[in-house]
Amino acid sequence: MPRLTYIGHSAFVLEDDDGHVVVIDPFITGNPVATIAASDVKPTTILITHAHNDHVGDALELSRQHGAGIITTVELADWIESQGLPDVTGANHGGTVAFPHGTVKFTQAWHSSSYWDGEKKVAHGIPAGMIVRFGGSTIYFAGDTALFGDMRLIGDEGIDLAVLPIGDHYTMGPADAARAVEFVRPKAVIPCHYNTFPPIRQDPETFRAAVGKTAPGTAVVVLAPGESHAV
User: Fold this and answer.
1) By the 8 A CB rule, do 129 and 24 touch?
2) What pLDDT score was predicted for residue 124?
3) Alpha-carbon span 33 to 17, nearest angstrom
4) Burial class (CB in 10 A: 0-12, 13-18, 19+), 142
5) With contact defined as beta carbons under 8 Å apart, do 227 and 5 qualify?
6) Helices in the chain by DSSP H: which ranges?
């Protein structure tokens, strides 16, 4: 059974019993709520939802150190490849890419996407969510997004666990995220992208209470940075 560990913000580590380690949106260095250092993570695959710096994070350095392949959206993949990374795969909405012991299918997300390289904005592109199939489980990482009606179609994929932003201001807030749970119909949901910075302060118990009204059959799993959940 795979295990999902919350690094903090929208960064997660997904591991199986065979030693495969998938890191999602690895914003670790500079993450004020992270309880680990980037050097503590040894990925075999890196998945990135979009180009914002608080999601790309340590991806390039982790790939260089551990030879981990990076899978992300096309424009961001092109820029990462231009930085000398040899194993980068770009995909787009609706596309599925295989990686060791799993696959990732890119979904739409309503957000923005660009990366600041020093004082220059680069890697303009599209944001995405991801349906990750790994270790026999199906996990929906929504990425940074607003609520949208086609989340109902994502629910048709048979989602075991949804990871949804609740911070508001830049993404869905607790009320809209609870509606997203209703649409996606996962067995369990983990909130993320909150309490990292002042504009996204939220009480996850508000989200739990809202899910109890919109999707009472879904378990709400609130993880503190460093805690894990068996998927």
Assistant:
1) no
2) 75
3) 27
4) buried
5) yes
6) 53-56, 59-66, 74-82, 151-155, 174-184, 204-214
DSSP string, 96-147: EEEETTEEEEEEE--S---EEETTEEE-----EEEEEEETTEEEEE--S---
pTM to 2 decimal places: 0.97
Residue with tokens 């349906």: 131
Whose tokens are 């220059």? That residue is 120
d(CA 97, CA 89): 8
pLDDT for residue 125 is more than 90: no
And the tokens for 161? Answer: 């666990």
Q: What is the mean pLDDT of the chain?
A: 97
Tens digits of residue pLDDT in 169-196: 999 999 999 999 999 999 999 999 999 9
Contact between 214 and 178 under an 8 Å Cβ cutoff? The reply is yes
